[in-house]
Amino acid sequence: MYLCRWYYLAGFLFLPFLWAINSFWFYHEAFKKPPFQEQKDIKTYVIRSAIGASIWFIGLLAWIITFQINRSSWGELGDQLSFVIPTGRA
């Protein structure tokens, strides 16, 4: 339970991949094993980690789509935000 809680709390440091790892790694412990004392706490951390990772994934996907569609129309700002400036439309 200590590791599950640690991954959950570390996810708040803008490390959503820890939430994803937590939700996959401890899924079996939380939902498939026979009941044990800490299972309720582990379920809570697994569910919250999955929700947090999903929100981050949706937000990141929305930003990627928005940026790819609008980068060229943002002019200099779009160029400043780009690591590699693609050739094509000006």
How many β strands by DSSP? 0
Helix content: over 70%
Strand percentage lies at under 5%
Summed over residues and divided by their number, the pLDDT gives a mean of: 88
* SS field, number of helical segments: 5
Rounded Rg = 19 Å
Summing up helix and strand content along with how strands pair, one would put the structural category as mainly alpha
Describe the largest sheet. Answer: none
Number of domains: 1
Elements, N to C (H/E): HHHHH
Distance between the termini: 54 Å
Shape: rod-shaped
Low-confidence parts: none
Membrane topology: Multi-pass membrane protein
Family: Belongs to the PEN-2 family.
InterPro entries: Gamma_Secretase_Asp_P_PEN2
Main location: membrane
Mind explaining what this structure looks like?
With 90 residues, the chain is mostly helical. It has one domain. The protein has helices at 2-10, 16-25, 27-32, 39-70, 76-81. The longest helix is centred in the middle third of the chain and has 32 residues, at 39-70. The termini are far apart.
